[in-house]
Amino acid sequence: MKSEKALLWTLAAINFIHIVDFMILMPLGPQLMRLFEISPSQFSLLVSSYTFSAGASSFFGAFFLDRFDRKKILFWVYIGFTVGTLGCAFSPSYGILLAARVISGIFGGLTSALILAIIGDVVPYEKRGSAMGLVMSAFSFASVMGVPLGLFLASLSDWHTPFYILTGLSIVSLGMIYKFIPSISEHMNLEIKRPSPLEVVSRVTSNSNQMRAITLSIMMMFGQFMIIPFLSPFNVANVGFSEMQLTYIYIAGGGFTIFTSPWVGKLSDKYGKLKIFTVFMLLNLVPIGIITHLGVTPIPFVLMITTMFFVTSNGRYVPAAAIITGTAKPENRGSFLSFNSAVQQVAAGFASLIAGLIIGENEAGQLTNFNIVGYIAIFFSVICIPLAKRVKVIS
């Protein structure tokens, strides 16, 4: 029992560092755009390079990671992630930072795949839900503590500091992997015919219901990731936030989400996934519409709107995840979800890239065309509602 708890806390720590490493770059946008003198489209490439590489590696990783002892492969993959994060910390230029983000993304994607595999191997089915809950709580903790603290330290010194700290924490986590994660090799002895990447793609694309679920994932990512990467740069350049004050957005948004996420899950079970998804998707349109049209605005009002954005974004994701997961039978669910996860990350990358091409910068340093990005995000979000109605849950 003690060893299982230590293992889960180790996985939660790894997940926390990996999530903060991904999330921290977006609120650092104002500093990076100013210091490297880069355009919104160049900044969006920094964000999308991570998601593209993580999406590809997590998908293809699912087909070769099973050939190795989980502990050994996690240790080596996490060394790669640590090197990528250290590369971010040392980056003196935009080009080197971009390359370091690709390396971090590749190994970050593999880390995510391994965390899920280890929980599946070690934790009994009846306890797996609470184990997942503990490890995935790292996301909320990263939003409430990790990102704001990283931003605070960056505003006191410079943008390199959060990555130095994440590198140090990654080295500590390597020690935890060595000490608390046992050798896990039973899966290597199982004679299971595992599908090739081509077979997985073929199986999903030939199933019209699963293709609708995948399309729903893509549309949801476009509805969110056209907005999220530019939330911080826009609030600094146009709304009147200081770089230090950006921490309030993440503390308030992440803090509320910790409490609303379980509540949304219960509502979904009680009133139906589709109904709750539709309600939160419609509510989500309100903050998107307001955020993308703001000028100089009092901070308390902005925080109210950004918090509503965080809460409603999470509120639509919770029932949608249940709907999408239910389109696959148990025997094919793992490969379907790894494909869906990869598609989500690639879609998030394209969404931020397209937003970066639309958004411009005027002579005063303000971002332009964010309202157009808002209209496009609303369009993709609205499409999700009839699409979700056509997705059939079979399991």
Q: Which geometry do the CA atoms define?
A: globular
Multimeric status of the protein: single chain
What class, by secondary structure content? mainly alpha
What are the low-pLDDT stretches, counting only 5+ consecutive residues below 50? none
What's the CATH superfamily of the largest domain, by name? MFS general substrate transporter like domains
Residues in helix, %:
over 70%
Strand order of the largest sheet: 1-2
Report the C-alpha radius of gyration, rounded. 20 Å
Percentage beta strand: under 5%
Number-wise, the strands total 2
Mean pLDDT: 88
User: How many separate helices?
Assistant: 15
The CATH topology name of the largest domain reads Growth Hormone, Chain: A
Q: End-to-end span in angstroms?
A: 31 Å
GO cellular component, one term: plasma membrane
Transmembrane segments: 7-25, 45-66, 73-92, 98-119, 131-156, 162-181, 213-234, 246-264, 276-295, 301-324, 336-360, 372-388
Organism: Algoriphagus boseongensis
Membrane topology: Multi-pass membrane protein
